[in-house]
Amino acid sequence: MLLLKSFILGFSVSAPVGPIGLLCIQRVLSKGFTAGFLTGLGAATANIIYASIAAFGFTVVSAFMLEQQMLLKMVGMVFLVYLGIKTFQKKPPQESARVKGESSSCQLFASTLLLMITNPVTILNFAAMFAGLGFSNESSSIRMAVTLILGVFMGAVTWWLVLSIGVNLFKKNITPHLPIVNKVAGLLIILLAFLSLA
């Protein structure tokens, strides 16, 4: 039951389409299913790191990151703006040779992992959500903590899989409009970058 609850939690935390969701959609359309899924997997990995800190109570790490949250948010905002501009300027595959500047699998994964890591408030969010599920650092077992973390990760990965598959299914219909999609996605990512700082 706890695994199911934490699975739903991980799925629902990932589901709202923010800048990472837009990036995932754009990458599925321009580079394919694998690129989009790796983008989401990077975000899910960041969630698992923060969920682990919340569950196991790594107070020194969480305290340091929360103290530096403004700096980390600024770094995240700058990176998001950069990604937004790159997305806005992106040309469809048929208009550009895809040899130069093509991101590797590691880069696709790492870019979203690093982006998500710049939001340490997520630790507090997970701590509050875990408390809502009846978990506390003092009274709960390691097994319970691992179950929570595993459920959150599985839920997050499931969402990114569903989103990537869903966008990929309609790719043929959307690809002709990719230049417009890229510009809209780029502008929205830049807008969400500034809103995330606010």
Characterise this structure.
With 198 residues, this protein is mainly alpha-helical. Helix content is 79%, strand content 0%. It is built from ten helices and no strands. α3 (33-56) crosses α7 (121-132) and α5 crosses α6 (105-117). The relative contact order is 0.25. Mean pLDDT is 79; it is low at 94-102.
Give a short account of the largest sheet: none
| Shape by Cα distribution | globular
Q: Return residue spans where pLDDT drops below 50 for at least 5 consecutive residues.
A: 94-102
Category by helix and strand content: mainly alpha
Radius of gyration from the alpha-carbon trace, in angstroms: 18 Å
What is the mean predicted local confidence, pLDDT?
Answer: 79
Along the chain, the helix and strand elements come as HHHHHHHHHH
The number of distinct helices, counting runs of at least 4 residues, comes to: 10
How much helical structure, as a percent, in the residues? over 70%
Number of β-strand runs: 0
Terminal-residue CA separation: 37 Å
Relative strand content? under 5%
Q: Nutshell version of this structure?
A:
This protein is an all-alpha fold and 198 residues long. It has ten helices and no strands.
